[in-house]
Design a protein that fits this description.
The chain is α/β, with parallel strands linked by helices. It has one domain: TIM Barrel, CATH 3.20.20. The protein has 7 helices and 8 strands, in the order E-H-H-E-E-E-H-E-H-E-E-H-H-H-E. Strands 1, 2, 3, 4, 5, 6, 7 and 8 form an 8-stranded mixed β-sheet that branches. Helix 4 links the parallel strand 5 and strand 6. The protein starts with a strand and ends in a 6-residue tail after the last strand.
């Protein structure tokens, strides 16, 4: 089974200063991509993207926009693309409400999926969907089959609403057990890959 980090880029700082005090709510990782790979044996990365009104890509988790440029992201993907072991990247269009969805941005998402798949041929991209289950218009079909994936982190394992406030605590209490599970899935995604 391959270990993967849920919301892999959420270790980044919020771009909006007024949301910085709430980073503990949306942070699912606290180690950068290079160290997730080198130090914690992570081989699957969960990439959540959206686009601003000018069509510029940004990384987000819900309404939190991270202070990271597309150029920075390309460097991370290039690093992963150049590794000996092949890595998986789950690409998700991070739009949760119909109010924020536009066909133009969904088209940008599909174009970005295609661009990344062509530019980084050693990476195994998968998913290509919107986080919102109602939104099938944003879907992109990658060349690879989607692997089976088990997601074991606070927002899928905790009682409703507790997950929104304590992802770090959930990981601290459960990651050691989670990593030892013998699951029948190709990939196991979890929060705070450095915690046990």
């Amino acid at each position: 089974m391959i270990f993967g980090s849920h919301n892999s880029w959420s270790y980044l700082k919020s771009k909006r200063w007024w949301l910085k005090p709430f980073s503990f709510i949306i942070r699912c990782q606290n180690v950068n991509i290079k160290n997730q790979y080198l130090c914690y044996n992570i081989r699957c990365f969960d990439l959540r993207i959206n686009f601003d009104k000018n069509g510029k890509l940004y990384i987000s988790h819900g309404s939190f926009i991270f202070n990271y440029t597309e150029e920075d992201l390309m460097k991370d993907l290039e690093f992963l693309n150049n590794r000996t072991e092949r890595c998986y990247v789950r690409m998700i269009y991070e739009v949760r409400t119909k109010k924020r969805y536009t066909e133009e941005k969904a088209k940008l998402f599909r174009e970005k999926c295609k661009e990344f798949e062509e530019k980084f041929p050693r990476l195994i991209f998968w998913c290509g969907k919107s986080i919102a289950r109602w939104n099938e218009l944003a879907e992109y079909k990658f060349k690879n089959e989607d692997p089976s994936c088990e997601e074991l982190y606070s927002s899928v394992c905790s009682p409703k609403y507790l997950d929104d406030w304590f992802p770090w605590l959930f990981a601290k209490l459960n990651n050691k057990k989670i990593k030892k599970l013998n699951l029948n899935s190709d990939i196991l995604l979890f929060d705070f890959v450095n915690l046990e």
